[in-house]
Amino acid sequence: MEICVSFQTITITFYLFIPLIVALGLSYFSHKSIAHVSSRVITGNDEVPYLQRLLVAFISILLPSFVCVFCIYLTFFLLHHFSLTLEKLTEVFHTIGHQIIMVFLINRIAVSLLSPKMAPVRLLNIAPSSAYQLIILLTLLGGVLALDAVFDSIYWAVSASLSLTIAKSFIAVFLVGVLLFIIAFIPLQFRRKRFQNEEIKPLPWPLYIRIPLFVLGLFLIVMDFLGYIGLARFVVQLIVTSSAFLILMYLGIQSTRAIASKGEFIKTGIGHTLMKWFHFEEKTMDQLGVVISILLNVVVFVLCTVPIIGKFGFSYSEIGALFWQLMTGFQIGNMSISLISIVMGIVVFFVCLFIIRLFICWLDGTVMERGEFDLGVRNSIKTVISYGGIALSVLLGVSTAGFNLSSLALVAGGLSLGIGFGLQNIVQNFVSGLIILIGRPFKLGDYVESGSVRGIVKRISVRATELETFQRQTIIIPNSNLINNNVNNWTRRSKMGRIDIPLTVATNVDPEYVVQILLEIASATEGVLKNPAPQVNFTGFDKQNFSFTLAIYVPNITSTSKVNNALRFMLYKRFLKKGF
Fold it and tell me: Which intervals hold domain Mechanosensitive ion channel MscS C-terminal (predicted)?
C-alpha cells in the first residue's frame, strides 16, 4: 500500500513539474525570438523607425505573456486533473493565476515601453534611472491590486468578516493613491542634448500627464477616507486594467501597420518563406501582408476588448455566449446571418478558385502543350474554364455561407429587368465574347482590322478584345462591335500577305521596259517571296503619266517595314540611273 502511495506521489510530483519545464522551454524560445527581431531592427548607428520600435515592443510583450498564460492554465489543468485542490480553494487558485498574469502583463508593458537596457528601440525618451523607477512602481501598483483581489478570494472562501474586507480594501486603495503620487513626481528626461558638453537635467512629467495622475491619486485617497472604498476600488481597477489592454491594443494595431507597409511583409521570416516556396510576386506579397494585417487587427481587438468588458460586470461566460451567438448566427428580420458560415464561404470560394487555377495550369502546361494545340485554342479553353470556375466557386461559396440560392430568384428577376434597360450592352458584349471564344474568328497574335482600327490581338475576354497597334497603342474594342461589324483578319490562315506599291512614270518611257525593271528589282529584294511571284499591273495612263502597281508577297504581313524600305530605295536608285 505504501509503495502504491509513494508511486502515486512521485507521478503527481512529476506532472506538477511539467509547467515548470514547459515555462523554461518557452521562455528560452521567447527570449531568442525577441533577440532575433531586435537584432534585425537595430542596424548600426541609424535611428530605428517608430513603427519598427512598436513592432519590437509588441513582440516583447506578446511572447512572454503568452508563455505566462499558457503555463498558468496548464497548471490549472493538472491541478484539476489530479484533484489536488479543495472545491473551496479552486476559485482562490484561479484568482492567484489570473492576478499573476495581470501583474506580469503590466511589468512587460512597462519594460517594453521604457526599455532601459535598449535605447535604440525605446518608445519613450526617459532616462534609464527614471525608467527603472517607473517599472518598479508600476509593477508594485499591479501587485497591490493583485494582492487585493487574492485576499478578496481568500476572505470569500473562509467567510471572513466584513470589517476585515473593508480594512483590506482601504489599505489597498490608499497604497495605490500614494503610488500614483510618487509616479507623478518622478524626474524624467525628454529633451535631447543640443550640443556635446551640455548638461542634461532631469525634467518632470509634462503637465498633461502629471495633473491627471495627481488628480486620480487625490481622488482615490479622498474617496477612501470618505468611505466610498468600493467606488475608489472599482475606478482604480477599471483604469489600470483598461490602460494596460488599451496600450497593448495600440501597440498591436500599430505593429500590424508595419506589416501592411509596402515591402515590409517580405522582410519577415514568414513572408520570405512564402515567397520562396510559392514564388509570389512582390505585389502579391504586399497584398497578402495587408490581409494578414487585417486579421491580426481583429485578433488583437478581440483579445484586448474582452478583459476591459469584463471589468464592467460581464462574466467571461456571458461574453463567450454573446461571441458564440454572433459567430454561429443571429437574426436580422427573416434573415439568419452566421459569421462562421460567411468565413467558411469565403474560404471555400478561395480554395475552389485555387484548385481551378491549378487545374488550368496543369491542363495548359501538360495536356495542351504536349498536344501542340494552337495558341488561340489554348487561350479560348483557359478563358472558358476560368470564367466557369469563378462562377462555380461563387455558387459553392454562397451555398456554404448559408444563403438560400432559391431566394436569388428575386435577384434574377431584378437582373432580368435591368438587362432589359441598363445591362443590355453588357450582356450583349458578354454573349459576343463567348461567340468569339467558341467560333474563333480570330485568335491571339492575329493581325486584324475593324473599321479604322487595326492591330495585333493581345487579349480576348468575355467583355472586350484588346489590340496593340504598331505604335504600341492599346485599343480595347467591345466584343459586340467585332461581331456586328466586318473584321479583316490578315493572318487567319497564314501570316503571308501581299503589299501593293503604286507608282507613276512619265509617258516618254516604254511601259513594258518599266514592267521589266520593276519585276527585276522585286525579285532581287531580300524578303520578297519568289512563290507567289511578284506582279506588275498597268493600271492606267493619261497624257503625262503611266500608272503601275507593283504587288509583292512577304512571309509575314505584320512586319513589312524592312521590305518596303529596301524595295523603294532600289526603285529610286534604278529610276534615277535610267533617267526616268
Answer: 499-568
Instruction: Give the domains, in start order, of the chain with CATH numbers.
Output: 15-193+201-260 (no CATH), 424-489 (2.30.30.60), 497-578 (3.30.70.100)
Torsion angles phi and psi, residue 526, rounded to 5:
-70, 135
For 466-492, what is the mean pLDDT? 85
SS3 state at 547: strand
Report d(CA 32, CA 25) in Å as an integer: 11
Count of alpha carbons within 13 angstroms of residue 172, beta-carbon side: 26
Residues 6+ apart with CB under 8 A from 85: 79, 93
Whether 450 shows a pLDDT value over 60: the answer reads yes
Separation of alpha carbons 82 and 55, rounded Å: 41
Whether 102 contacts 142, CB under 8 Å: yes
- Of 157, 109, 156, the residue nearest 135 (C-alpha): 109
Any long-range contacts for 116-124 (C-beta under 8 Å, 24+ apart)?
Answer: 118/38, 118/42, 120/41, 120/42, 120/47, 120/48, 120/53, 121/38, 121/41, 121/42, 121/48, 121/52, 121/53, 121/56, 121/57, 122/53, 123/53, 123/54, 123/57
Name the band, by pLDDT with cuts 50, 70 and 90, for residue 166: confident
> Residue 417's pLDDT is what?
63
List, for residues 504-513, the tens digit of each pLDDT value: 888 888 888 8
Inter-residue contact 144 to 175 (CB < 8 Å): yes
Specify the length of the chain in residues.
580
